Amino acid sequence: MKPAYVADLAADQTVTTFFLVTEKEVRSTQNGKLYLRLELGDRTGAIEARMWDHFEDSAATIARDDFVKIQGRVEIYRNKKQLMLDRLRKADAAEVDAEDFYAHTAENVDQLWARLRELAESVRDRWLHQLLAAVLDDVEIGPRMRRAPAAKTMHHAFLGGLLEHVISLCELCEVVAARYPETNRDLLLTGGILHDIGKVYELSYERSLGYTNVGQLLGHIVIAVELIGRKVCEIPGFPEELSVLVKHMILSHHGQYDFGSPKLPMFREAVMLHYLDDLDSKMGAMRGLYASDKGDQEWTERSGALERRLLRVDKYLPIDGAVAPAEPEQLKFDDTAPTPNSKAKKAL
Question: What span, in angstroms and rounded, lies between the C-alpha atoms of 16 and 240?
Answer without folding.
Answer: 59
